[in-house]
Amino acid sequence: MKVTAEEQRQVEEQVERLLSGQGSEVGICDVGLELSKPATLRKNVTYIVCGVIFNEKEEVLMVQEAKQDCYKQWYLPAGRVEVGESLEEAMKREVKEEAGFDCEPITLLLIQEQGPQWVRFIFLAKVTGGSLKTLVAADQESLQASWWDRESSLPLRGRDILRLIEYGLKYHRNPWHPVCLPLDLSCRHVIQRLVLVFVGATEQIWVLLVRVPLPHLPTAAALKTHAVTWAANMVVQEAVPSSYSDHEVSTLGVFSVQHNGRQHGRTDGVCLNTLVALVPDRVQRDEDGLRVAWPAAAAPPPVENPRYIWVEVQKQELREKLLEMTKNTSLVPIHSLY
User: Fold this and answer.
1) Which residue in 60, 112, 161, 268 could disulfide with 120, CB within 3.0 to 4.6 Å?
2) Nearest-angstrom CA–CA distance, 114 and 222
3) Which residues contact 174 (CB under 8 A, 6 or more apart)?
């Protein structure tokens, strides 16, 4: 059964909203909900926020740690989201407490995760007020703050921040994805919403949908035993089980992040609106173990589960946007640290 013309229009509008950085309430979780518990800060999820801030010399703001296990070492302003905070509020609080500055976020730069129980949101931000924290103001949050030229010797708490600084510098010099700031929309679990596309040999493009109650983009709950983006694999396994092993499920990036956090245990979840590509494994092996290059597929693998349907994108402008995004991803990256 195909979708009606009106359903096709509504689905393409859903996709266009996500491509423009908008979101929508998560009314249904299609996959994995029975294996997932509601997100609750301090119990089963931890969100970390981190601020990357440059001055006019492209020096980066650093803070000297006061904690005993990393005493006097340097790191980016960062810390845990507290109960009742939004992601932006948490980032601004951490920068103020640790570095002395008021700031405003410019965009999300990167999301890192170790499953739904630990997710780090890295922001590029700018100073809007306050003053640099000095040793006179040292407290349990930090000893002091300083601008680092990235060349002089500095004892770092961890080298992981070097990648974050490079991402920030790259965006600071030449923004390579649209501004992405968290949307104030509540969610109970850690969810991945998928714009899951398949590109055909002649550049037709299909989007996978869940049929009921009305055709919509799939949503899947993240499992604590896997990376957050494994949720996309669960959807593909359910929709096209026989073809799953012959394809790569690749989460290309994040259109937007939905989070509210006002009601502890009820709105502590996040929804990551993502672009996912289902890509045929074009290099396979024959019965002798020799590599065989397979031609590009003309159409997506047939759906085997009646809950799902492939819908070919008809709107030319939308098709061109999706094609461009699959070739030159200009979205917020999400990296698994598993």
Assistant:
1) 112
2) 11
3) none
* pLDDT on residue 287: 66
pLDDT digits (tens, 9 = 90+) for 16-37: 999 999 999 998 999 999 999 9
Q: What is the model's pLDDT at position 281?
A: 82
Strands (E), the chain: 46-53, 60-64, 74-75, 78-80, 101-113, 118-130, 144-148, 190-199, 205-210, 219-221, 247-259, 270-280, 283-285, 291-293, 308-312, 334-336
Check residue 295 and report its DSSP letter: P
Peptide bond into 213 cis (omega under 30): yes
Q: Give me the helix-helix angle, 316-327 and 5-19, nearest 10°.
A: 40
- Residue 282 is predicted with a pLDDT of 64
Q: How many CB atoms lie within 10 A of CB 65?
A: 18
* Separation of alpha carbons 64 and 138, rounded Å: 9
For residue 166, what are the contacts with CB-CB under 8 A and spacing of at least 6?
none
Could you tell me if 154 and 64 are in contact, meaning their C-beta atoms sit under 8 angstroms apart? no
Q: Give me the phi and psi of 35, to 5 degrees please.
A: -100, 5
For position 52, what pLDDT does the model report?
A: 98
Q: Which residues of the chain are modeled with pLDDT < 50? A: none
Cβ atoms 37, 260 nearer than 8 A = no
Specify the 3-state DSSP secondary structure of 63. strand
| Cα(105)–Cα(204) distance, integer angstroms | 38
Q: How many residues does the chain have?
A: 338
Burial letters 287-302, b for 16+ CB under 10 A, else e? eeeeeeeeeebeebbe
